[in-house]
Amino acid sequence: MTPDAGIPEFDGEALATVARLRSRFRGALLGLAVGESLAAPAQWARPGSFSPIRDLIGGGPFDLAPGSWTDDTAMALLLGRSLLECRGCDPSDQLTRFRRWQREGEGSISGECLGITASVSRALVEGSASVEIRDGADALVRVAPLALWHYADERALLADLEPMMRVTSREAATLDALHEFASMMHGALRGKPLDDFSNSGSAGPIGARIDSQSARALAIVKESMHGAKNWKDAVLRAVNQGGDADVYGATTGQLAGAVFGVESIPAGWLAMLAGRPMIEELADALLAEVLVRLDNET
Hints:
The chain is mainly alpha-helical. It contains 13 helices and no strands. It has a domain at 24-54 and 61-75 and 137-164 and 171-297: ADP-ribosylation/Crystallin J1 (ADP-ribosylglycohydrolase fold, Orthogonal Bundle). The two termini are 21 Å apart. The model is unreliable at 1-5 and 200-209 (pLDDT under 50).
């Protein structure tokens, strides 16, 4: 990153700090995308009904090429672009972008709106979440770009969760899970020790009776991160749960990417990731905005 990109000049120890932040920012967004891609063979499958995932092989219900991603990554990246262009959280703009994705495939890697859930589809058509359909966990996956945007202000991050969520979701249990996961993401980006949050909270162990899809996904994220030594181990543990494996991979992937940095994501998997340069550019643009704001405050 250079001054030409709108980033303040740094030297010495400050440069090392910026490099660590860049690794975490890229790790969060690339980790989200690789995590969703990795989950393809296990999506909607019962645990134990598929060969354990050990590599990035594609396939699954959409017969994806290795490194391809669908709804979870597409919506998160659209949110990131909205934050940059609107200079903050604008639910109306997010709805407009998601509707273009739904109708035209804008923002997808394939040109198609693959993987959209019934709850999201209904919310985008009607303009708000339907009381007739339970929330999915889509809003949980979208935490990463919001956490990057609000790197310097956890209070602002938590305040923006509900307006972001209500574009597609409505349940109090969803918002509770978002608050906990957003605090975890914020802590990870700022270098908080993994043991401080990887097994915290009350979501419960995998298999516990949990009343929302977001709460179950959060429980799997925490179980997958607990004791993890690197990105790969955590995310493989998550996606091999089957079911909503794409959600589990994307959420664990973004948190593990923030904790361990982009260097912990296998290089071969990053090389296969569809849209990698575009994702890296978005992460760098979000970091540049954060650094400029921090510089202006000093």
